[in-house]
Specification:
Layout lengths: L4 E7 L3 E7 L5 E8 L6 H18 L5 E8 L3 E2 L4 E4 L7 E3 L1 H8 L4 E6 H12 L8 E6 L3 E7 L2 E2 L31 H4 L1 H13 L7 H5 L6 H9 L3 H25 L3 E5 L6 H16 L9 E4 L6 H11 L5
Parallel strand pairs: 1-4, 4-8, 9-12, 12-13
Antiparallel strand pairs: 1-2, 2-3, 5-6, 6-7, 9-10, 10-11
Helix pairs in contact: 1-2, 3-10, 5-7, 5-8, 7-8, 8-9
Bound molecules: beta-D-glucopyranose.
């Protein structure tokens, strides 16, 4: 395996995170800046290039040949293009790989889906380090997914395998900005949990959060969980139904890939095992295919917000000749 350091950058709607990673997936330098996506792609690409230069300088003369970038999809890994980025509305058909290559001569740039990169990061250096087959769901603004089969990331023929957040779990369900209806992301992302609660309150449901919603405050999934824990029936129902939809996704993932492990990551896992894993496991045990004896273990991610950076760097390093 090539031993050189690699740069990983995770492009998010709020922040750009970057790091210099060694061959074992350890971060030896880290950077984070606000994305400032409102200024458009040119501005954001400039910020990514500056971060990469800063990380190159931090390498102190050690060889760095690759930059892996994780970005929300759909993307083309083969062509290095972001087709659409749900949290960066002006990003339509942006050739991010070539734009960064032009700005950073001497670096090979590799584009990956952000959740694929994060799943791979957990696979090489986190919760999945002791398995060969795993799937991961990232639960944040959206729901992302990544799948590793027999030790390899599954990209599919057109690079968008593992878009688990856009699996349809309610035909004729809630509209998604992606154009479909009933996507998992519209029920079980952090944003969806807050939105579904606020919509129910607007529709007349009783809740301890009602006054805050009526005053125009934007509640969060953490507010919903706190209300649920304090005995709010609506909040508890919305939270539990998100866990049930996630369990349904795990059932479907089991049928598709038969992994040993399904990992949950992203902001929502701050709820902790008791409030997230335990209810998902309970629903999974009710819903799952019981005629097969084995089932995947469910776990929380261990790398926190670093998984995307570590995974993007690791995937980029793999493109180098051994
Ligand atoms: C996108 C995915 C992405 C996820 C998390 C989804 O809406 O389709 O590509 O991984 O959000 O950013």
């Amino acid at each position: 395996m090539p031993s050189a350091l690699a740069i990983g950058i995770d492009l998010g709607g709020t922040n750009i995170k970057g790091g210099l990673c060694d061959a074992a997936g350890r971060l030896v330098a880290q950077r984070a800046v606000p994305t400032e996506g409102e200024h458009g792609p040119d501005h954001v690409i400039g910020r990514m290039a500056s971060m990469a230069r800063d990380l190159l300088a931090a390498a102190g003369g050690q060889s760095v040949r690759v930059l892996g970038v994780g970005a929300p999809g759909p993307i083309s890994h083969a062509r290095g293009v972001i087709f659409r980025a749900p949290n960066l509305p002006q990003w339509i058909n942006i050739p991010l790989r070539d734009r960064l290559s032009d700005a950073l001569p001497g670096l090979v740039v590799v584009l990956e889906n952000d959740a694929n990169a994060a799943a791979y990061g957990e696979f090489v250096a986190g919760a999945g380090a002791d398995v060969e087959d795993m799937a991961m769901l990232t639960l944040g603004t959206g729901v992302g997914g990544g799948v590793v089969v027999a030790g390899r990331l599954v990209r599919g023929a057109f690079d968008n395998a593992g878009e688990i957040g856009h699996m349809i779990i309610e035909p004729a369900g809630r509209p998604c900005p992606c154009g479909q209806r009933g996507c998992l992301e519209r029920y079980a992302s952090a944003n969806a949990i807050a939105e579904r609660t606020a919509e129910a309150i607007a529709g007349g449901a009783r809740s301890t959060l009602a006054a805050r919603v009526s005053s125009g405050e934007r509640i969060t999934s953490a507010d919903v969980l706190a209300a649920a824990r304090a005995g709010d029936t609506l909040a508890a129902q919305v939270w539990d139904s998100a866990c049930r939809y996630l369990a349904l996704a795990v059932v479907n993932i089991q049928h598709l890939y038969n992994p040993q492990l399904v990992v949950f990551s992203g902001g929502l896992i701050q709820a902790g095992a008791e409030h997230l894993l335990v209810p998902i496991q309970r629903h999974f045990d009710l819903l799952r295919w019981k005629i097969a004896p084995d089932a995947p273990r469910l776990a929380l991610a261990t790398l926190g917000t670093d998984a995307g950076v570590i995974g993007a760097a690791a995937l980029a390093r793999e493109t180098l000749p051994g």
